[in-house]
Amino acid sequence: QRSNLASTLHSLDGRSYGNYKQIRGSYEFGPVTVFIDRVQVDPFASPSKVRIRINRSEAGFPTDITTDRSDRIAASDFLFRVGDSFLHRNDRRAIILGRPGQEVLERTNVVIDDEGLEARLLVNLPARGRRILGHQAADILTRDVPELAQAMFVHSNLSGDDLREHVQLHRDQQELRNHLGEEGLLAFIGNGAILPRRAGDSDLPMDSSAVAFSSPASLEHTVTLSSGRSLTGMAIPRGVTVIVGGGYHGKSTILRALERGVYPHITGDGREWVITEPSATSIRAEDGRAVTGDDISPFINNLPSGTDTGAFTTTNASGSTSQAANLVEAVEVGARSLLIDEDTSATNFMIRDDRMRALIPANREPITPFVDRIRPLFTRRGVSTVLVAGGSSAFFEVADRVIALDAYVPQEVTETAHELVGVSAADLTGNVEPDSAAVGDHSDVSAPRNPAEAAVETAGEVFTTPQPRIPTAKALRPSSKTKSAKAKGLGQVQFGKAFIDLSAVSQLVDPQQTTGIAEALEYMSEIFDDRVSLTEALAEVEDMLDAQGVDGLTGNRDHPGHVARPRPQEIAAALNRFRGLRLVD
Ligand code: ADP
Ligand code: MG
What average pLDDT does the structure give for the chain? Predict the structure, then answer.
């Protein structure tokens, strides 16, 4: 059959491009099967879809690291990287496998199933003008593509140790993440971690000038994993953590590392042992975004326009309302911790100083600043916060702990900070949840800590569970039968005729996740029926993804293209930013 495809391609040389369509089908190359699933109609159309596949028995991979679902994600990621470097080393530009980043993500590019291993390629079939370059095409499809399969899928061609280590690292990271959950911890940063990146536009680790992370003694935590690996580093408990320090001392860099710590990182990244609980969500101001029916009343009330902030809708949110919307939306989809940087926050959302409180009476100020809500958010809703605040002491009295950075080295300064504002540790203990079991149990009502908080608490239950938001089916139903959602790079999704701007959604790390979001919107548009809430639809998507993997998101089961699994937080972020979103009253 090899000669079959090769001779067809040779014979097509010089003919018009459309003739390529005859090569659809499957071809055997020794143990490798090449499937040509879709052939592009012209040289400028999206590339042709090709799969390579090998049976397990031929591939010879050890089953102990390719059976468990999570192991398969790690092993697939390893093979993805092997394939990527093979293509680069040999300059095989016509073949597209996708570009790996610093994270290990669940994706469609390479998959391991019960029967075998498979890679999904995109191939640009070569042309001169609109004529087929048949001899080149034969080289690509009957030589280069099978060679790639041999390099990736034949275990004896790989470094088995590297593969095993890749899978083991992923297991250890997962175990550490589970351990954090069990211990009521929100995040862990291992001693020796390299947090800063090479440049603002590079996710690679900073060179040797980086100062390696070292934990303050008071927050140091050691874990021994079942692999025997022992890790020591800074553990951030649940509750309210404030990071302070001079400008340029590395505050934002830590927060950014925590943001990314929801994903596992590869060996050599420097953030291998930066692990954050998986629902942690970065919250920032994002003026100009649309908001549809959010209950932002815990933060904003009595707008001069008389607008109802219990179901707040706008096409153009301000800095503070956008940040409030981002926060309540994150909590709505189950964020158990929030990551907030002063650099990207609206000051009037975060704090209001005493003189301003004296000058502007409370009933003339629609905003209740976050500083007044940060504790009830934890005690009533079980939502923790890690906050960078170098410019104001306002959060000292509501902080369970304060970490100061000095030339990138963290120290715990909780006692000093509490002394400065006249709060003692005892004042706070009553408010700290005893353990993680209480998280999510919103009935935990503890005594208010100080008069200011008492006033807030008696002002009524500010964090009652909001009404579920139910999108109308009509608003989300694509107008045409063709695909209506499409990713445009990392930061934008086209949905029908509208564009959804995701450039402020900072935990989106790979353009393939954006493709995943587009597919998820498409998928969810079939779920909404004027009764299903946004959170119910997201849960349904999660269940499907857990059962079927990312392939299940796409309509095309043979060759789904290159898609990575987004978190539910980022899928919700896209839906919430869709300007066409409408809710059932
Ligand atoms: P801040 O938010 O406190 O103003 P940043 O986190 O933005 O500070 O960091 C300021 C600069 O210092 C950045 O260019 C960052 O890359 C660099 N930096 C941060 N952490 C380290 C570190 N551990 N070692 C070396 N450089 C660092
Ligand atoms: Mg900063």
Answer: 92
Helix (H) or strand (E) holding 188: strand 185-190
Does residue 248's CB lie within 6 angstroms of at least one atom of ligand 1?
yes
Q: Is the CB of 475 under 6 A from ligand 1?
A: no
In a domain, 18, yes or no: yes
275 within some domain: no
Residue with CA closest to ligand 1 atom 1: 248
| Residue 191, domain member (yes or no) | no
Predicted confidence (pLDDT) per residue in 203-242, tens digit: 999 999 999 999 999 999 999 999 999 999 999 999 999 9
| Ligand 1 pocket residue status of 245, Cβ below 6 Å | yes
Nearest to 212 by CA among 387, 410, 388: 410
Question: Average pLDDT in the 473-485 region?
Answer: 77
By most ligand atoms within 8 Å of CB, the mutation choice from 208, 253, 255 for ligand 1 is: 253
pLDDT mean over 114-125: 98
Q: Percent of the chain, pLDDT > 70?
A: 92
| Domain range for 543 | 473-577
Protein residues with C-beta less than 5 angstroms from the ion ligand 2: 251-252, 343
C-alpha distance from residue 463 to each of 377, 382, 458, 563 (Å): 7, 11, 12, 37
Residue 180 main-chain phi, psi, to 5 deg: -55, -45
173 or 3, greater pLDDT = 173
**CB environment 357-372: b (16+ within 10 A), e (fewer):** eeeeeeeebbbbbbbb
Whether 516 and 449 map to the same domain: the answer is no
- In total, how many domains does the chain have? 3
**One domain, residues 297 and 441:** yes
pLDDT at 2: 54
Q: Is ligand 1 within 6 A of the CB of residue 214?
A: no
Instruction: Please name which of 572, 574, 562 lies closest in space to residue 100, comparing C-alpha atoms.
Output: 562
Q: Is the pLDDT of residue 435 over 90?
A: no
Evaluate: CB of 404 within 6 angstroms of ligand 1: no
Locate the ligand 1 atom nearest the alpha carbon of residue 255 and give its number: 6
